[in-house]
Write a structure and sequence with these properties.
Layout lengths: L1 H20 L5 H21 L5 H20 L7 H6 L7 H15 L2 H12 L4 H8 L3 H22 E5 L5 E6 L15
Antiparallel strand pairs: 1-2
Length: about 190
């Protein structure tokens, strides 16, 4: 293994140094990154054999360069006033949306509603839900997924949503007809 490492490193070291130097202007940082790549190579080769050494070395090098820049990113302490500026999810749109969800959940067929409530609202692991309901884990996963998709369709039919950049609901408007029409949905499926 030592011979394999030495051969691989000698064959690619200069090419790796040039690759790093094109991306990192500081020569000392280039040497540090190259040494980090060598250390990662040592630890990985102790665990097993690399089938594509050149590609693997360049992948490790790209990751190490990214880690170098990530660690150098300047951080600024945020003012404490920003902490109080974030919205409280227990009030406003998310809380009001929660009140709209009850009739939708109630409208789901029981075989989909029970796993969804246990997994998403009671916080049980899906394996535990399967055990409690006496069904397979695959069945629980399928039912929870189908229930989530059904809930999404109901919400999109019922409400006009406004989302932030992360996809979180910031506001919503109930469409005409509201959530009242979900009382008959449970009998459809």
């Amino acid at each position: 293994m030592q011979d394999e490492l030495e051969i691989m490193w000698i064959a690619h070291r200069d090419e790796l140094r040039a690759f790093i130097a094109r991306r990192v202007p500081c020569q000392a940082a280039v040497d540090d990154i190259l040494q980090d790549v060598f250390c990662k190579t040592l630890s990985h080769l102790a665990q097993g054999h690399v089938t594509q050494p050149r590609g693997w070395l360049f992948a490790v090098t790209r990751t190490t360069i990214a880690d170098h820049y990530r660690s150098r990113r300047p951080t600024v302490e945020l003012p404490s006033s920003l902490a109080s500026a974030s919205p409280d999810p227990s009030v406003g749109a998310p809380r009001a949306m929660g009140a709209c969800l009850k009739p939708m959940i109630d409208a789901l067929p029981e075989k989909m509603r029970a796993p969804l409530v246990m997994a998403d609202y009671e916080g049980m692991r899906q394996r535990e839900v399967a055990s409690r309901l006496g069904i397979s884990l695959a069945a629980v996963k399928s039912r929870v997924l189908r229930a989530r998709l059904q809930m999404r369709r109901m919400i999109e039919e019922c409400c006009q949503l406004e989302l932030d950049a992360r996809g979180s609901i910031t506001d919503f408007v109930v469409k005409p007809g509201g959530c009242s029409r979900w009382s008959a949905v449970g009998t459809e499926n």
